[in-house]
Amino acid sequence: xPISGIVLTCLAAKVDDVALRLAAFDGVEVHGVMPDGQIVxxxxxDTVQGEVDIVSQLHDVEDVITVRLAYxxxxxx
Length: 77
Fold this sequence. Notes:
27% helix
């Protein structure tokens, strides 16, 4: 099972709203919200393609500027 840590950047004024929208995605868990517009989250899916699909959708969330991969791991179930 692939698991990735990601850091998203958005406008600082929108960070709390964006974090709520991200947390509504299946497979996304928000772990930190920084006042400068950075959001730390974990993405988990059954397959690599599933994970790629989730991250691709995060790029399209309104007010998200960047999505960066910070960590990636495959865990056996």
